[in-house]
């Protein structure tokens, strides 16, 4: 194998496998440059009262509610209620 091809092979190997061989084949998680905290919709900088929607879906007997405050990024939710859902009759749903 000539020197040029060996260099290409070595570069590709380290590009694809760097950090995976040491930590049980898991890539290292790195934060994007400049991100030091969660923002608005994920971190709560935007309050629930500031989020509005065209409508809200309610469950059987109105005991469950899929309100706009559930539209947060990476929301884990509770027991089947995990995201905002517009009413099924809403023909032009929006959230802001």
Automatic annotation (TrEMBL):
The keyword Signal applies. Residues 1-24 form the signal peptide. Keywords: Signal. Residues 35-96 form the F5/8 type C domain. This is F5/8 type C domain-containing protein. It comes from Aldrovandia affinis.
